[in-house]
Amino acid sequence: MNRRDLLRLVGATAAGAGLLALVPSFLRGKRGNGGDSQDKDGDTLQEEPEKVSQPERSSSSTGARIEARYYRKGKNDSVHCDLCFHRCHVSSGSAGFCRNRINVEGTLRNTVYNMPSAVAVEPTEKEPMHHFLPGTNMLCIGTASCNFRCRFCHNWHLSQRSIEQVRRRRTHTPGDLVRIAKSREVPAVSFTYNEPTVFYEYMYDVAVKAKKDGLRTIMHSNGGIESQPLQDLLAHIDAATIDLKAFSQEFYRNICEARLEPVLETLKAIKENGTWLEIVNLVLPGHNDEPAQIREMCEWIRTELGPDVPLHFSRFFPTYRMTSLSPTPVSTLERCRTIALEEGLHFVSIGNVPGHEANSSFCPGCKARIIHRVQYTVSEINLKDGACTSCGRQIPGIWK
Q1: What integer is the mean pLDDT of 36-57?
Q2: Which residues of 215-239 are buried (b: 16+ CB within 10 A; e: fewer)?
Q3: 118-388 domain in CATH 3.30.200.20?
Q4: Which among 94, 339, 368, 377 is most buried, taking Cβ atoms within 10 Å?
Q5: What is the residue-wise DSSP string for 10-21?
């Protein structure tokens, strides 16, 4: 009996007995990770909002939802999408590379609006986001699909499927999600689990509503978004975690079916905008862990973004289409961190290694531990008004 058959048998038996919550998480298909970072479950909350509205301007014949933004009409009902670097030319009846934007008789439509496949309350540290309201929780939101095809994606069951292929999905308007966040008393909402660029219209409307209701907003992205959509979105985003998957065009092309340059432009734009920024680098043994490449990447971060942008080196575990690759040796992560510190970066952490000292944050001045973390749990914060309590040095971030 293979895993799929076992899953169906155990799930059906447990559901029939009313015991689904007791089925082990790996049998329920839980594979966590917001983008490339720490493992994230993404189980949908069981709470239903009091009133669930149906999406406006839906098309029952195509399943398409609302009209997309950032596209131009072409000849013979074709369209040109300007949302991300792929700049897809989409003929009528077809979808773009992201699967979510479909041309319906000359109108580009977003098929995932109001249709999250994952809504859950998670620790902010899981994003990872270390200099943003440490010790708090956030409402995490995801839908389906992606504009990358990363062979190592831990959230492939969402990111590498269309919304029709995702088994668990609900109907939640932007207002519904904000009400859930408020009822759970979390200070922020995060767009994560799958690439938020591919549910741009939904993310944008949720962010606008959340900000109006006094919530903070976070996005975890691969950075593959065009300049104008990004600038329009950043007006409503407080913080961003961006996956810098490697410092190699070849890696992006061969392993992600993407490009490095748009990601670098996104990083610079976020920093220039004043939005709080943190970077994740998932270290894949033998693919993006060469010391020279790590040093080049860290030098670029320091020169183009500044030394205070936190950098997270995250441990890889076998998954999706790279199950034959071994987990990242902890020594490799430590070597990467040493290189980053040598290059002058101030805040460099190691993730996906529970209990490692470098999961905590340290003052770059006196070297005192300013935030003590064990995996996702914050046990101690030694900051007062954003300053180190040992030496008084100001630590950049969003602390309240």
Answers
A1: 38
A2: bbbbbbbbbbbbeebbeebbebbbb
A3: no
A4: 339
A5: HHHHHHHTT-GG
